[in-house]
Design brief:
membrane, MFS_trans_sf, MFS_dom, transmembrane transporter activity, Major facilitator superfamily (MFS) profile domain-containing protein, single chain, 352 residues, globular
Amino acid sequence: MVNSTAYQSHNLTEETSSSSSIAKCQSALDDPESSINAGYDGDLLWSPAQQTLLFSASVYGSFITLFFSGYLADKFGPKFLVMGATSIFVFVSLLTPLVANYSYKMFFVMRILMGLGDGFMFPCSGSLAGRWFPSTEKSTAAALYTSGRQIAASLASLIASNLCASSLKWPSVFYLFGTLGFLFLIIWFIFVSNHPSSNKFICEAERQYLMANCNTTNKKNTNKVPWRKMLTSPPLLSAVFCNFTFILQATMMQNFLPMFLKENLGLPLHSNGIYTMMAFGSQLLFKNVSGPAGDYIKRKKIMTDTNCVKMFQTIASIGSSFGMLALLFLTDCQNPRMALVYLFVFGKSDFQ
């Protein structure tokens, strides 16, 4: 998509060029022919600063809708909100090749629109899970319904890197995922309902069980939200801050990992997709182990719900921090395979 050969790598300074290994990496990374052979010969001349701004554009959009999307999901139901958000994804994806070649500024606006839709996805997923899963299965449910992120990131990185390296080039990536988004809309509209009571595809025994054990009421909640107490609650503020720091590093990893692998390790395009898949594939595996494990611990009353969450969150935070620091300081272009180990450790720690 972006022609990386038009801009030399600036990761290493002149002061560090005395190291033979660093100098060798620098020479390889700054060689335009090497980058072209590696598959990074795109047709868009956007600087690294412009690329970084595009990564943040979707975050700006989601920051706007995130504040009220959960309220709307609880009030009106998440089904059609998810459909609206996905429609934005489809629209933006299919128009991206045209807009990207026409105007960088318009493409930036399109990424903000993508973020507006993304701000609805997690709150709506949580609202829907609360209506369909008993409280004793919440950890398993969270691992299950958030697994789509890891599945998408794993497969998308592999598929996109191979499509970009093929004769179809980068526009095919957006056309493919835009089409998949349209198919998702059809499947979602047919099979998904806000409550088990209105779903046509479950048996009566399952319906009765879910209605008895889940928050499936269709009645509107007239209780006022205690905003002042919430915004001044130390436990709540602590949880928000901890979640912010964890999501920050997870977002940085998802957005900038491919660029890091290219700029710092000099990986060719097809290998970039495989390495990126390692982190998210590992997350997918271990989050679906830790979720049921957490439910088992709480069900057997081995520890309280709060202590169980604290334990898994601590393991996740320490493990992911180690993986990121090791990836930064213990890998280089002469030994890129060690990055696979650290990416696996990073993903293995996704217990949150």
